[in-house]
């Protein structure tokens, strides 16, 4: 059996998976103080006879295996978690091989191996909700260098009459600052979930998301793009994103039909835990090389 | 000995390299009719006793080894070369292992192994001249999926008073359309080479290039960025690009000092041929696995 942890900003999920990828047991914890949370997590896994563990964690986090601070949470706005050595604190209680990635890295590899990108050589996974994050996988490898991608913070060319304040502390005009949940609230006074497709901001979001997808697509050239999250999971949204994507491509790069190219996740809310399971399996292969 | 071909839009260079990476012999051909050109290329290599060949070619070109049209030039504006099966035409005369990438892929791997990125885990290589192209290397592998990147065509958020027509047939506001050589001529009436650092367009270019580098940097997270080409090789330009890059980063991602992060190529005009030599060596390793 394998253990999987999805460490999110508001909740932590832990799952036990069988060899066949089926989840056998699960707990959920509200994210609060890291020391207490990890105690609960470790307690859950301790008597479960798992061979290895996979972790997908919110970032920024040090994912560079050669780094002295590998596995440490970095400059997060969550003060209690800042500089918390996640990997070390798990390792000292559970002496197991551990595979680590970001939350979107884990979800991306879950979708790649067992979800919407199954059978594809490469895929981009993107989630657009309270924040925006993405991961790219090619030939089975999650793209990570000394750092993990920060895809949500690329600049978006604003439309001329869009003067709204960017809700990113660092960037005047980044994707997350203009299109994530808080920006929708700022733009419309209503929360992202309540925005419907007749609202003009709905169309604006679809155009901006299409622009971002095109930028990722030209740089990474994924074989498929998987998009999820609260902003995308709205009736009519993915169709509008596809239409705008086709419009701005103008045939420059030849791609699959956008209906086959820009798709929803298949694993839904389970992508992260399933991805953790994949990372756990790989952690075994790695140590037995 | 190893053979290397740099197939450019205006000239073709062929080199012979010793085991130690030293170039021993070279020819240059003006790019014209593919059949005649390949005859000359093949003639040069035929009696040279090389073990393998590496090719960096202008694109778009099919770089997907699993594709039925692997090694074929695609929809290039150069009519004679359109749909020309480059790899097949070389292979039928020289029965050797051949490694293939784009022109920027070859230059990028040259700089990665033996140039400015030596010792780094990952690097972005970018050339800004008549056109704009780039390649990304991580753990020694050139990023290529079913397609190669088209980095020059990402959208740039224009400054409000910049109304110049984009000189890209496909995109109203892409990096190449706004910043490559032809756009400088359109903007200033003078050619890119003659533009000096007191011209306001010089500053505008530095700001736009910095924006593009930031977008690549956030998505790919390279350990170093190598930039070359006629637009960048101007006194004072790289310093201005670095200043603007630091300004727009605002400390969001922690990076090396921009003077160590955004650098010139070390191999200059030889990067492409050296990269071809690396690809040739790798083609041997691959077939002997």
Tell me what the structure shows.
Chain A has 289 residues and is of the alpha/beta class. In chain A, 34% of the residues lie in helices and 19% in strands. Chain A has a five-stranded mixed sheet. The first copy, chain A, has a five-stranded mixed sheet with strand order 8-7-6-9-10, with helices on both faces. In chain A, a hairpin with a 2-residue loop joins strand 7 (132-138) and strand 8 (141-142). In chain A, helix 6 crosses helix 7 (237-249).
Tags for this model:
289 residues; 10 strands; 5-stranded mixed β-sheet; alpha/beta; homodimer
In short:
With 289 residues, chain A is an alpha/beta fold.
Overall average pLDDT of chain A: 95
Measured on Cα atoms, how large is the radius of gyration of chain A? 19 Å
**Could you tell me the number of beta strands of chain A?**
10
Quaternary state of this entry equals homodimer
Which residues of chain A form runs of ≥5 with pLDDT under 50? none
Which structural class fits the helix and strand makeup of chain A?
Answer: alpha/beta
- Kindly state the percentage of residues in helix of chain A: 25-40%
Number of helices of chain A: 9
Strands ordered across the widest β-sheet of chain A:
3-2-1-4-5
- Global shape of chain A: globular
Q: Largest interface: which pair? A: A-B, 39 and 39 residues
Query: Could you spell the SSE succession of chain A in H and E letters?
Result: EEEHEHEHEEEHHHEHHEH
Topology of this protein?
The structure is a homodimer of 289-residue chains.
Chain A lengths: L1 E6 L3 E7 L5 E8 L3 H13 L5 E6 L28 H6 L6 E5 H12 L7 E7 L3 E7 L2 E2 L32 H5 L1 H8 L11 H21 L4 E4 L8 H13 L8 H4 E2 L7 H17 L2
Parallel strand pairs in A: 1-4, 4-5, 6-9, 9-10
Antiparallel strand pairs in A: 1-2, 2-3, 6-7, 7-8
